[in-house]
Amino acid sequence: GPALAIYPGSRLRVRFENLLETPSGPHLRNNYHYPNRSNLHTHGLHVAPQKPGDDVLTTVVDPGQMWQYEYRLIPDHSPGTYWIHAHAHGSAVLQTG
Predict the structure, then answer these.
(1) 78 FRET partner, CA 20 to 30 A, in 21, 31, 64, 67?
(2) pTM
């Protein structure tokens, strides 16, 4: 994906649209399930783990649905290289490779 420059104290909005097909498979906690559901997770950013931000436990975007993520960086956020990836429990390994 593209590289973004985000500055301390700023806000990043990501419109995530799941264009995968309808989910299939059983619902099993902490096992492979619903391979076409998705969400996003950040690494290294000091952001809140609640909606509409980095909530990987309850924010799930089904196929054909959209979610507007919003990440607010703290004013003294350290510089660095951070990343974001798909993180739906049960299907993350399929979506990230």
Answers:
(1) 67
(2) 0.79
